[in-house]
Write a structure and sequence with these properties.
The protein contains 13 helices and eleven strands. By secondary structure, the chain is of the alpha/beta class. It has two domains: about 220 residues, HUPs (Rossmann fold, 3-Layer(aba) Sandwich); about 70 residues, 2-Layer Sandwich (Uridine Diphospho-n-acetylenolpyruvylglucosamine Reductase, domain 3), CATH 3.30.465. Helix 2 packs across helix 8, helix 3 packs across helix 8 and helix 12 crosses helix 13.
């Protein structure tokens, strides 16, 4: 006859055997999604950008599981870029999977232009459709499936292009654009291999985009060649280190932005057909602040971004002036007039 203690232990063993343990990949991604959704208003809608690949599919499945617990409604949008022969079938399968997960699914076909190259044109078309869908649904957020690996690739590409701190910050976990759309990336701390493991553990059939293996794209070359070499030569953890660098630079940028907005109110004035900035204030600030002020003023007033060379030329009007005339810039010109730099629309 078994003792009571042995019987209790046996019951524990039986219970544990009856309930399969949750896959670590599923647990990690569900937690990441739960954390990202936690501050959204109850009763609101979120839209998942769903391509059918492992990253977006894992995101959609985790969101379908977590969102109802927080009182959120979930929809998905699959954009058919029409760049491959079977793109309509891929989009349809993605939508069917979303529906099976309990997510309202929509497929939109877009025309992709050529400006900026195929990657940039497809991205621009995709974001336009997502923004429109968010507005139509009154969504509180659009969820994007970028992972830690995507972040590392973005930082490396920015470094190679010499794009400065703004590019090295990578992608923000949460960003609200000028139209009020909130873009959320819950998986920025999750490795790509984890999303694949999630799909395998969840028995989700995913799509491998053939463009992700075409080395004509710089991002693919970084993924397939550059990062593996760095890992081999410098040791493991390169992707994580690049992601940490991006996070630290975003923190620095946020601090700079606060300082700039506090400063700019006192040194900027509206001028005829433009805006002006105090020469003395620009000259008195450190170069990092001075250059950020110039870029911010031009971007805010004229909606264009200055290159570093253009920014430094404008700064020289305050710090190294020798009688140089107006400087032609995108959408405007900059000139030293009295004690101010005046930016005038062209």
């Amino acid at each position: 006859m078994l003792s009571a203690t042995v019987t209790r232990r046996s019951l524990v063993v039986i219970y544990r055997g009856a309930v399969p343990s949750l896959s670590p990949a599923i647990a990690e991604i569900r937690l990441a999604v739960r954390t990202a959704l936690a501050d959204l208003p109850e009763g609101s809608t979120v839209i998942v950008a769903l391509s059918g690949g492992t990253d977006s599919l894992a995101l959609a499945a985790a969101t379908a599981f977590e969102a109802p617990k927080l009182g959120l409604r979930v929809g998905s949008l699959t954009v058919d870029h029409g760049l491959q022969g079977d793109s309509d079938a891929v989009a349809s399968r993605a939508a069917q999977t979303a529906t099976a997960l309990g997510v309202d699914a929509l497929v939109v076909r877009v025309e992709v232009g050529e400006e900026g190259g195929p990657e940039a044109a497809a991205r621009d078309a995709r974001y336009r459709v997502l923004k429109d869908a968010a507005a139509d649904a009154g969504a509180s957020a659009v969820l994007l499936g970028h992972t830690l690996d995507d972040q590392a690739e973005t930082v490396l590409l920015g470094l190679a292009r010499g794009s400065g701190a703004a590019s090295l910050q990578g992608m923000a976990p949460v960003r609200e654009d000028g139209d009020g759309v909130r873009w959320v990336r819950p998986l920025l701390g999750v490795r790509r291999e984890t999303t694949r493991a999630f799909c395998a553990a969840s028995d989700l059939e995913f799509w491998d985009d053939p463009h992700n293996s075409e080395d004509r794209f710089a991002r693919v070359r970084v993924r397939e060649r550059v990062l593996p070499v760095l890992e081999s030569e410098l040791g493991p953890g390169i992707a994580e280190a690049l992601a940490r660098t991006a996070e630290q630079l975003r923190e620095d940028a946020e601090a700079f932005d606060e300082m700039i907005h506090e400063t700019i109110e006192d040194i900027v004035e509206h001028a005829e057909a433009g805006i002006s900035v105090s020469l003395a204030a620009l000259a008195a600030n450190p170069a990092a602040l001075r250059n950020r002020i110039i870029r911010l003023v031009v971007d805010s007033e004229f909606g264009v971004s200055l290159t570093r060379v253009q920014t430094l030329e404008v700064a020289r009007l305050a710090t190294d002036w020798s009688g140089q005339g107006p400087i032609d810039l995108p959408a405007c010109s900059a000139a030293r007039l009295g004690g101010r730099i005046v930016f005038t629309a062209r």
